[in-house]
TrEMBL record:
This is IS3 family transposase. Coiled coil: none annotated. Residues 90-265 form the Integrase catalytic domain. It holds the Pfam family rve_3. InterPro entries: Integrase_cat-core, RNaseH-like_sf, RNaseH_sf, Transpos_IS3, Transposase_IS3/IS150/IS904.
Length: 273
């Protein structure tokens, strides 16, 4: 048949392979776009891990080549607004986590505040995160840099656990006046949690909290335009669910925060900075 139509057998099989390759690339691109619809800035390695864990066998080099060819590599830009005012006269607490070995969930919670831009001006996002699993335990979007926002995030985190599970838990934050306030620390004391704070104001002293803030902003929130605080609140609720339940993390073996938080085997251990 090949000879009859003027083609060699080698040319025929090359054409077949090219057709199979094109079909495979289209299939992979459709999967990538489906994942990126919910997680538009998920990096290449995490994307590769997620595809393979879903039963799609693809090599990392093959995926990277495909992403580059279709301009699907993630690009990040850095912006920063200061949300910490550590100049207040409030009581300062010691740093209880420096060098501490983290071996289980609810051993250390870290808290921080970041900003989200809207057409109506900046609003602020307070987060409480479990240091071991990287799971966001509580969040709240607010329009003022006072204690109320972080306190509401803390109250939401309390709803995720029984009181006995956080007795003795270390709550670590920067030296912002919100976290130094009497109201915030009285609330921690009522739950028998221990207060820990950075000492020199360096972001590396609260690196896990800063990292979580950055992920939410770079991979989701900075890619969208919000009109007002209500729109931010609706979106953050969905984003936190995706972050906790879908996004793999290098720091926890490319697992999701939800899966590690539920795992009581203590498979990971690390020292805080």
């Amino acid at each position: 048949m090949c000879g009859h139509f003027g083609y060699s057998k080698q040319a025929y099989y090359r054409g077949q392979r090219a057709g199979d390759k094109l079909e495979r690339e289209c299939y992979l691109l459709s999967l990538v776009r489906d994942i990126r619809e919910d997680m538009p800035n998920l990096g290449g390695v995490k994307l590769w891990k997620k595809l393979n864990s879903s039963g799609v066998q693809v090599g990392r080099d093959e995926l990277y080549r495909l992403l580059r060819a279709h301009d699907l590599m993630v690009k990040h830009e850095k912006r920063r607004v200061v949300t910490t005012d550590s100049s207040g006269w409030f009581r300062q607490f010691p740093n209880l986590v420096k060098g501490l070995e983290i071996k289980r969930h609810n051993q250390v919670w870290v808290s921080d505040i970041t900003y989200v831009d809207t057409l109506s001006g900046f609003v602020f996002l307070s987060l409480v995160t479990d240091a071991y699993s990287r799971r966001i335990m509580g969040w709240f979007v607010h329009d003022k840099l006072n204690t109320e926002g972080p306190l509401n995030a803390l109250y939401r985190a309390f709803l995720q656990v029984r009181a006995s599970e956080i007795e003795g838990t270390i709550h670590h934050s920067d030296r912002g006046v919100q976290y130094c306030s009497y109201q915030y620390n009285t609330t921690l004391g009522m739950k028998r949690m221990n207060t820990s704070m950075t000492q020199d104001g360096s972001p590396y002293d609260n690196a896990i909290a800063e990292r979580v803030n950055g992920i939410l902003k770079r991979e989701w929130l900075e890619q969208e335009v919000f009109v007002n605080i209500e729109q931010v609140r609706v979106r953050v609720e969905k984003v936190v669910a995706l972050y906790n339940g879908q996004r793999p993390h290098f720091s926890i073996g490319l697992n999701t925060p939800d899966s590690i938080y539920r795992d009581l085997t203590g498979k990971f251990a690390f020292h805080m900075y």
